[in-house]
C-alpha cells in the first residue's frame, strides 16, 4: 500500500516537473501583473488608494509558493529557487510603491508663538490727603443786578395780584403761587445775578400770558 502511495507521489511529481516549464513564466510574472492592476486601481479609486496593501503580498507569496512547489520536481530546482527569491524581493519593492499612495502629506509643524505679556497698567496716583480740591463758583457773565423795590418788580407784583383776583384754574393758581414765592425771595435778596434777572423777565412774560387768557 505504501509502495503504491509512493509511486503515485512520484508520478504526480513527474507530472508537476513536466508542467513546470509552462507554469513557471506565468507564476513568476504574476506578481508584476498584479502590481500593475493594483497600481491602476490606486490611481482610479480613492477607496483602494486609502486601503491596506498587505493583500498584495499575500497573493504574491501564494504564487511564489506554488512556483517553488513545482520547482522541487524540476531538474533545475536550485535555479528556480533563486528566481523565486529574486521575485520575492521585487514584490517587496513593488509593495513599497503601492504603500506610497496611502501616505498623507507631511504637515510642517507651525512654530508656536509665545503669548504676549499683558500690558502693564500703572496704578493711578492716589489723591493726597492734605490737598483739598478747590471750590470754584461759576457765575454767568454779567455783573449783579440790584432789584430792591424797583419799578419792574413792582409791576410784576401788580400783575400777580390782579391774577389772584380772577377765578383761576387749579393749575394756573398753583403756578402763580410758585411765582409769588420766587418773587418774594428775589425781593428779599435784593442783589440778583444776571441769570436771576433774566428769570424775572420770564416770570413777567408768563404772568402776562396767563392774564391775557383770563381777560379774554
UniProtKB/TrEMBL annotation:
Parts of the chain that traverse the membrane: 20-43, 55-73, 79-102
Keywords on record: Membrane, Transmembrane, Transmembrane helix
UniProt name for this protein: Uncharacterized protein
Lineage: Bacteria, Bacillati, Bacillota, Clostridia, Christensenellales
